[in-house]
Design a protein that fits this description.
It is built from 3 helices and no strands. The chain has helices at about 10-20, 25-45, 55-70. Helix 1 packs across helix 3 and helix 2 (about 25-45) packs across helix 3. It is mainly alpha-helical. The longest helix is centred in the middle third of the chain and has 18 residues, at about 25-45. The mean pLDDT is about 80. It is globular and about 30 Å long. About 10% of the residues are buried.
């Protein structure tokens, strides 16, 4: 039996909107999310933690966490 991780799409939309509000340039933040998703996809190609979560969604979650919780960013 496959373990399914569900995520709330409204929460993802809220996080994406918070990223866009905090950014000075909407295009730039969109490109940053896309680049992070692409990089994560190829870094963890063999070691996929959660196959149900797309790389773009994971990038949005990570970047919004970095925005709201700056203590998780390493020095």
């Amino acid at each position: 039996m496959q373990k399914r991780h569900s995520f709330d799409s409204s929460q993802i939309m809220y996080r994406a909107e918070e990223l866009l509000k905090a950014a000075s340039n909407r295009y730039r933040i969109t490109v940053q999310v896309a680049n992070r998703a692409k990089r994560r996809r190829y870094e963890e190609f063999d070691n996929i933690d959660d196959p149900m979560m797309k790389p773009a969604i994971r990038a949005i979650i990570e970047m919004s966490d970095e925005l709201t919780q700056p203590e998780i960013i390493g020095d």
